[in-house]
Structure formats: C-alpha cells, structure tokens
Design a protein that fits this description.
Length: about 190
C-alpha cells in the first residue's frame, strides 16, 4: 500500500510515495514522470524513510531538475516487425564482443516496458528489449544490448559486471548518461 508523504528538507518540501513491502533494502527512485518513490522493508519505520529522503534531498532535486531539461525529439515508434529487425541487427553487431567469453547467442524478445530498457533472463537464455528503445540512436541500442549480454557473465551489477563493461565498451558510461535523455520514450 502506497502512502503519499511530504518531508521538509533543506531543498524545500519533497513529496514522495512510501511503500512498505518485503524487501531487504531501502530503494529510492524517481520514475520518468518525476514521481519520487521509496520502498522500505516491512520492519522499518516511516520515519526512517523520511530521514533517507532528507539525506538524499540534493540528489532528488538534481534528478528532478535534469528531468525538466529539454529532451531530444522523439521519432515515431516503428512497427513491431521493424523493431524486431532493428534489434536483431543490433544484437548481431554486439554479440561478437561476448561470444569469445562463452556467451551463447540469446533469443530475443520484445516488449513495451515502462521503467527499463531491457532485461536478461540468463537462466532461460534470452534477453528482452523495450520496443521504445527503437526510438533511440543506434549507439544507445548497442549499449543496452551489451549491458544485457554481459548479464550472462555477471548476473548482478557488481564490480565484475562493470569491469567487463569497461573492457568491452569503454564509453558505456557516456552512452548510459545519453540514454537518460530518452526517458520520455518509456511513457
């Protein structure tokens, strides 16, 4: 159950949605619509959530300000068949980077997603890419495809994952930053 809360911070009042659920950590996020949400473990107090929002107020304010900056124009979404061809081409271009590391060519699935560009199902041998990614430049599709392929080697976002990304695509951080400007395509 969500509860809308307002916290006074040094940056001014911040409204956020608090959700208590069976999670291990406090998870603060801002969605593409500028909605601030915090998930906390069931055993945590609401006041602990308020305190985290106060501590992170500068980060929250900066993230909200970035979202208000002008975004690049969004081209229309191609058809599902065009998306499939585009993403298959991307996957075939990027796959050689991980092929020698023992990654089998995954199956490709497409789906409209609201909060992520792609995900990896390494146990089942497939990746899913968000159809909205077709509205982004090719180098950003390459980054997302590689990100998901590297999850076949490193299942989390630990140091090994990022070291592998650094090695295979040294400019991945620049591409990730650029991809954030296309967040409105997720809506």
């Amino acid at each position: 159950m969500e509860e809308l809360r307002v916290v006074d911070t040094r940056e001014g009042p911040i409204s956020y949605y608090l959700v208590k659920k069976p999670v291990k950590n406090l998870n603060l996020r801002i969605d593409v619509r500028g909605r601030v949400a915090l998930s906390i473990p069931l055993r945590c107090s609401k006041e602990l959530g308020d305190e985290l929002v106060r501590k992170q107020c500068a980060w929250i304010s900066a993230a909200l300000a970035r979202q208000k900056q002008p975004h690049p124009p969004m081209p229309p979404l191609p058809s599902l068949e065009e998306c499939r061809a585009l993403f298959q081409e991307t996957l075939e271009r990027i796959y050689p980077l991980v092929e020698g590391l023992g990654v089998a060519m995954p199956a490709l699935k497409l789906r409209k997603m609201r909060s992520q560009w792609g995900n990896c199902h390494w146990r089942r041998g497939y990746i899913t890419l968000n159809t909205a990614l077709a509205r982004c430049p090719g180098e950003l599709r390459d980054y997302v495809a590689l990100h998901e392929l590297v999850h076949f080697l490193y299942h989390d976002h630990g140091p090994g994952f990022y070291a592998c990304m650094d090695c295979l695509m040294p400019d991945w951080k620049t591409r990730r930053r650029a991809l954030r400007k296309y967040g409105e395509a997720l809506i």
